[in-house]
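Workshop exercise sheet. Pairs work together: one partner reads the sequence aloud, the other fills in the structure field after running the prediction. Swap roles for the next sheet.
Pair: D.N. / O.F.
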Amino acid sequence: MQNLGQHSTGAATETNLKLLTAIVESILWSEESYTRFLQCGFDAAIELFDISSQNWEFEESTSSRHNPRNWDEYKQLQQTRALSQS
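Structure field:
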């Protein structure tokens, strides 16, 4: 098994490129795969936004158009997931 510590975060390794290819191809296979793709993307976008806006005023952060939680697509995904879990 390859040591993950050998590569810098985000490096364009062969494994990372294979994973990106698999992700792109998987969204074509099923609605479930596409939903997982969206959730993963939103999770990453939210984490990045939270880190980059940690020094913002709370109101500015929560109302920002750059906050993925405010994007229509994220709200739709959350509604869809809530309906499927009930």
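Discussion prompt: Residues 31-52 form the longest helix (22 residues). What would you look at next?
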